[in-house]
Amino acid sequence: MSTGTAATGGTAPARLPGVLRLGLSRGWLEIRAFAREWEGIVFTFALPSLILILFAVVFDGMFDTAMPAVDYYLPGLVAMGLMSVSFQNLGTEIAIERDHGGLRRLRGTPMPPGAYFAGKTVLVAFLALGQLVLMLGVGALFFDARLPSDPASWATVAWVFVLGTIACSLLGVATSSLARSAQAASAVVVVPFLVLQFVSGVFVPVTALPDWVLYVASLFPLLWMAQGMRAAFYPDVMAAFEPSGAWDLHMVALALGAWCVVGLVLTLLTFRWKTRKDG
Amino acid sequence: MNDTAIEAVGLTKSYGGSPAVAGIDLRVPRGEVFSLLGPNGAGKSTTVEILEGFRRRDGGTVSVLGEDPGQAGRRWRSRIGIVWQRETMLPKVPVRDLVRHFAGYHPSAHDPDEVVERVGLAAKARALPDSLSGGQRRRLDVALGIVGRPELLFLDEPTTGFDPEARRSFWELIGDLARRGTTIVLTTHYLEEAEALADRVCVLAGGRVRALGAPADLGGRAAARATVSWTEDGGHREVRTREPTRVVAELAARFSGEVPGLGVHRPTLEEIYLSLVSGPAGSGTAGEGTA
C-alpha cells in the first residue's frame, strides 16, 4: 500500500481506487436509488407477492390438487419473483440508463467497468434475497404455507436461487441491448417475461401445455427455476405430475448452468456503453 | 512537464463516406480556455468526442494530456472531466451524496462538500437531482465533472436553454475554474459566451478550421474597418475607415461641437462569425474532398 505522501505531492501519482471498493460503493448507490423509485418497487419487487396473495385467496379450493392454493403456487411464483428482480429489473433499467446517457457518463469517468457490474450484482443479490424472504414470509405468516422441511430441500432452494438469479441477470443485461430506447425497454423485456410465465409452470402446470410449447419453454431458464423450486417445496409424491414423472434436478442444474454461460457470452458480445445515435 | 494540453494534427473522421472532420489541426496550451464554435454539423461534437476518447478517428494524430485518447486508460480518465451536452440520467440520491460517490472514482478528488459549495448548490445539497432547475442541474453536472480535480475540462454547450441571468452566473463559475488553472474546452452556440470566457476561439465549418484567434481579433476583426455614421443635411451619412478616430476628429472640427447622430461601429464577433461560416465551402454541408 502506498499511503501518505503519495496523495498530496505532485511526485508519485495517488493510487486509483480498487474495483471491489467501487463495486460496493456502486451497489450501495444502486440500492438507495432503487429504494426511491416506487414504480420499480411495485412492478419488479412487490408484484409477485401481490399475485401470491391474490392466488392464495381467490383460487383456494378451486382445484382438486389436494394442496392449498398457496402451496401450489408458491414455488413457481418464487421463481418468477427471482426472474423479476434480475431479468426484468436489469433489462429495463440498463436500457434506460443507456438511452439517457447514464452509462456514457460513467464511461467518461475513471470508474472501471467491472465496478458497474459488481454494483449491479450487489443490487440484484440484495433484491433477490429480499424477494425470497418477502414471499416466504407472506406465504408462511398469512397463509400458513408449507416451507421446505429438511436441509436437503433448503440446499436445493439455495442452488436454484443462485444459478437461476445469475442466469436471469445475465440474460437481462443482454436483453437491455435489444431495446433501442428507454420507451422500448419495457416492451422488449416485459412481454417475453410475461409469455415465459405462462409457459414455464408459474401459473399453469407444464403438463397442461402442448408439447411444442413445452419444448420451446424448456429452452429458457424460468421453467427450470420453477421446477427446481417445486422439487424443494412440494412433497415428493408430486414428482409424478412433472413431465418426466421425476424432479430431474440434474437437468435443472444443467439448464441453469448452461444459461449462465450463454448469458455471459451474450452480455460480453452485446454490452454497449453508448446508444447507436452516440456512435 | 509538457505545457501542451491538446495537440491534434490532420484529424479526420467520416461517417458513411461523408467527412464530418476533414483535416483539423489544433494546439491548446495548458491553462487556456479554448472555445469551439460552428453551426450544427460543422464537426464540433465529433472533434470533441475524439479528444475525449469517445470516438475513433480515421486519420491524424492526437495527443491529449500527453496520451492518445483512443488508447488511454483509467489514469488518463482521472485527469479529464466531461460535462455532457445532453442532460443525462442520474441516480435518485441527494446532490452531495452523488458528488461524494463520483469523487470516489478518482485517486485524488476535491472535498465533495467544497465542490457542492463552489458550484453554488450548498442550499440544494440534500435535494434529489430530479427536483433541481435546469440551471442547477448543469451546476451539478459541472460538480461531477470537476470533483476529480481534472487538468482538462470539456464543457459541451453548457448553458443551452439558460435565461440571461443564469447564464451570467454560470460564466462566473467557469471563469473561476479557469483562474484556478484548469484547461477548458468549451463548445457553444453562443458567441457572447465564447467572447466572455475564451482566450481563443476556433470556428469550424464543413469539418475544417475557418478561423482561429482571440475573440477580439478573430477573422481580422481588430484590423477590420470601422463604420462611422452621422446625420447631415437631414440624411444619414457613413464612411468605412481604418482610422475612425481621425474621422471623428474631423467631424467634430467641422460641426464645431456635438456631431448629430454620431456612431462608431466595429463588426461584432457575430458578424465576423456569420461571414466565416457562410463562406464558399458551404456551411456544414460536408461535400469536400479528402477523407
Question: What does this protein look like?
Answer:
The complex is a heterodimer of chains A (279) and B (291). With 279 residues, chain A is mainly α. Chain A has one domain (17-278). In chain A, 70% of the residues lie in helices and 0% in strands. Chain A has helices spanning 5-8, 19-35, 38-58, 69-99, 102-107, 113-143, 151-176, 182-199, 211-217, 221-233, 249-270. In chain A, helix 2 packs across helix 6 (113-143), helix 4 packs parallel to helix 7 and helix 7 (151-176) runs parallel beside helix 11 (249-270). Chain A is elongated, with a radius of gyration of 21 Å. Chain B has 291 residues and is of the alpha/beta class. Chain B folds into 2 domains: 4-219, Rossmann fold (3-Layer(aba) Sandwich); 225-265. Chain B has 9 helices and 12 strands. Chain B has a 6-stranded mixed sheet with strand order 5-6-7-3-8-9, sandwiched between helices. A 3-stranded antiparallel sheet of chain B has the order 2-1-4, with helices on one face. In chain B, strands 11-10-12 form a 3-stranded antiparallel sheet, covered by helices on one side. In chain B, strand 6 (152-156), helix 6 and strand 7 (183-187) form a beta-alpha-beta unit. In chain B, helix 3 (95-103) packs across helix 4. Chain A binds chain B through residues 7-8, 13-17, 21-22, 25-26, 29-30, 32-33, 36-37, 96-97, 100-102, 104-105, 107-112, 274, 278-279, and chain B through 15, 49, 52, 54-55, 74-75, 77-78, 82, 84, 86-93, 97, 101-102, 104-108, 128, 144, 148.
